[in-house]
Amino acid sequence: MSIGISNSPEDERPSTGDRSEDRPTERTSEGPSIGTALKKARIVAGLTVDEVSSTTRVRIPIVHAIEADDFTRCGGDVYARGHIRTLARAVGLDPAPLVEAYDAAHGGRPAPTPAAPMFDAERIRPERQRPNWTAAMVAAIVAVIGFVGFTAFGGGAGEKRPQAEGSPAPKAAPKQPAGKPAQPQQSPAAPKPEPSDSAIAAAPKDMVTVVLTASDGDSWISAKDHSGRLLFDGTLDIGESKTFTDKESIDLVLGDAGAVTLFVNGKEIKDKFQPGQVERLTYTKDDPAQGPAQAG
């Protein structure tokens, strides 16, 4: 029989006659050759050469060659015996008689050799998986972005940032119903504190001095010097006073100007600020000589 490579319907049917060939076929003791026995068993099992190759990992050309009793493509007697056993088990045959027939036709079984992966060289090996460098680079970039984001937004979470000038006061006075005068946020018996005479008299002449007293209720205040440095930012409780000095000017933001008594350079500012009114004011060392306080 000649070696057939294609897997056509004619290859799947049992051969009805022998073709002339240059080499003898190895026949089992009961008659059919090794290749014929394997091919008939494969056809009876309803398997194609492709299916047998996929199951046994023996390449398709070698399966065709063995079924044609051509063992020269196996790479030697050891590999040929291994392929015969593998294909016989795949198609449901006992491999022992077929191996014995092969040994009888090829000078007997050789001496045992040390165990080794004998058939891996001829079987289809899966392609070696290469490292996925793209996924590794994406993961590295994500890690760097996450670290930068944490440093930028999480690192200063515990720091107290001063409130920018011009922003709304965090504590606004509640709205009063129409027609009703605003009521001071204090008990009627609370005495009205006044700044001490010593604090007013001690105001230096070459600097601007501002004294704030929460006389009629709590008030949020913010104070900065002429360079914009924050001197105070917080709530002035009722009865509490704060004094600020600078060589050029003091910038104020009063959250509830009507609740605060204001002295500048030892003189009280008599502006009629309403309860709950937010005021932004700036005073220099010449105020209030030129009249009312200068609006910031």
TrEMBL record:
Keyword Coiled coil belongs to the record: no
Pfam families (UniProt xref): HTH_25, RodZ_C
UniProt-listed InterPro entries: Bact_Cytoskel_RodZ, Lambda_DNA-bd_dom_sf, RodZ-like_C
Low complexity compositional bias, start-end: 166-189
Region (Disordered): 1-34, 158-199
Biased amino acid composition, Basic and acidic residues: 10-29
All copies of domain Cytoskeleton protein RodZ-like C-terminal, residue ranges: 212-282
Membrane-spanning segments: 133-153
Keywords carried by this UniProt record: Membrane, Transmembrane, Transmembrane helix
Protein name (database record): RodZ domain-containing protein
Lineage: Bacteria, Bacillati, Actinomycetota, Actinomycetes, Kitasatosporales
